[in-house]
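Q: Could you fold this chain for me?
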Amino acid sequence: MNATVRLVAAASTGNMLEWLSFTAYALVADVIARQFFPSADPVTSLMLALGTAVAAYLARPIGAVVLGVYADRAGRLAALTVAIRLMTLGSFLIVILPGYGTIGVLAPIGMLVALVLQGFSAGGEFGSATALLVESHAGRRGFMGSWQTASQAFAVLLATGLLAITSGFLSPAQFDAWGWRIPFAVALLLGPAGYYIRTRLRDSPEFIAARAKPESGPPRPLVHLMRHHKTRVLLVMGMIAVSTGFSYLITYMPTFAIRHLGMSPSTSFTATFVTGVVLTVLTPVAGHLSDRIGRTRMLTAAAAVIALISLPLFLLIRAAPAMVTLVTALALMGLVKAWYAGPLPAAMAEMFPVGGRGTGLSISYNLGVILFGGVTPLAITLLIAATGSTLAPSYWITALALLSGTCVVLARRYRRSASSSSLEGAEGSLRRV
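A: Sure. Below is the predicted structure, expressed as structure tokens.
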């Protein structure tokens, strides 16, 4: 196997496992709500299921701190190995966990424990994996980093594909009984494969070279980051807002289409599947282009387009709630999402030097995902309930696009040169891009 392919597989498998599990949870939220959070009011059940997922996201910052610092001390691959073990354990629990009708209150508690394990491991996964990718090919950072978002897209593709097939071939009773667990079982199988690949690679040359220098990083990267680079953390959180919000909107669309537009599960899952294809194919292309024409230009343009098209797309879906309309709208969402998400991981990594990159990426990414991504399905549900309008999701995404575009522009003066390797003296090597 080619060395670059092995590297991409090692760095992306855990990320794909994470998104496969979280996407599947969002896609089958209605089933999980009925089986694990029963209530006389279906809306209350759904809110409890989504609320549990949000609560699990609180474990992400803890994982970001623990595994991010570990990645800067012991190495990117060491942190990634721990992360994939925990992620696999969480998937195992979801696969075997009985519902409320069998074990009572232990069912929602068990689901929460599984999600917390996955949230903790996911907290250190993105930062460590992105650092490994961008540090291994300095001249192709955009392309290498884009595989992080491409693997997320492929996970959405895999989850929706599995659910589209199972919901189409199984009876509703069979799907509710066991069919919804199939994506989590597939995620469980990915864990050992990812672990095997990761234990047979070396860390990035940039990280190894930096560790050989006594001044490569401060003894307490977390303390130094919070004291001297809070602005960077806040800007990266803002940069990721629209990307993560858009991702969770796409995964929430089947629930939205079924509940508010009266579409069938197979129709809505198929539309999301098409979006996954678009994202998987085009995200690396966008990352490659960012190495040639610049990441700031691509990110600001994409954010502007997202802000402009969100409301018209939802007007189209509401006016003609059919498969063709939903597929077209979600494919367009996937196109502009790829445009933004392709350059994003490298742009985020370039905000932090090598010595503290694992910590900086992990913390800023996970705080951004919690604040803007994890709450998106819940926020959309609340907005629709409060306004009575099915256009509410577009308002949320438009606001996030404006925020992200602003942060991308402001972040230009904080972007670092590729040769920077230490948090110490960081301000002296800033450059405009």
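A (continued): Confidence is low (pLDDT under 50) at residues 417-433.
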